[in-house]
Write a structure and sequence with these properties.
- It is built from 4 helices and 6 strands, in the order H-H-E-E-E-H-E-E-E-H.
- It has 148 residues and is α+β, with helices and mostly antiparallel strands.
- The longest helix is centred in the C-terminal third of the chain and has 38 residues.
């Protein structure tokens, strides 16, 4: 067993924590701009796209010859939500109102963002718990080696 495979769980948890941190940053950006309207239009909600990060020996693992299955998750990118409608409010005095007096608002739903933030927080905490358990198990293994 190599050192790299020994720490694979550690690397997977760290990758998950980094990805969830980016997700929380994007959610915070959405919440901060929930009322932002500018000359180029309203703020457009953003979301994070994750991708699976596979280990180098995935084919061996699938063939039952050992190998490393994966390295967790990474951020593939941040995309804009172009599917959701931008609500309109009637404010003819607003400097960015259209000819009919309506102002297009950002497509950010604060309740949805808060639920998404809670999910990201839970995933981050789960990865942190894995790291704590890994550290405790490693410490116990080292203590056992020392006592023998």
């Amino acid at each position: 067993m190599s050192i790299r495979s020994t720490f694979a769980g550690f690397e997977t948890s760290v990758a998950g924590m980094l990805a969830e941190r980016k997700r929380m940053e994007v959610i915070s950006l959405n919440i901060a701009n929930a009322n932002t309207v500018g000359p180029d239009g309203p703020y457009v909600r953003k979301s994070v796209i994750f991708k699976e990060v596979l280990g180098a020996k995935l084919a061996e693992a699938r063939a039952g010859q050992g190998g490393e299955i994966g390295r967790g998750v990474a951020v593939q990118g941040v995309i804009e939500d172009t599917r959701s409608e931008h609500p309109k409010i009637y404010q003819p005095e607003h400097p960015f109102a259209d000819e009919e007096g309506f102002v297009r608002q950002p497509n950010v739903n604060i309740m949805y963002e808060m639920v998404d933030m809670q999910a990201a927080k839970t995933a981050y905490a789960a990865n942190m718990a894995v790291l704590r358990n890994f550290r405790a198990m490693t410490k116990e293994a080292i203590d056992n080696l020392r006592s023998n």
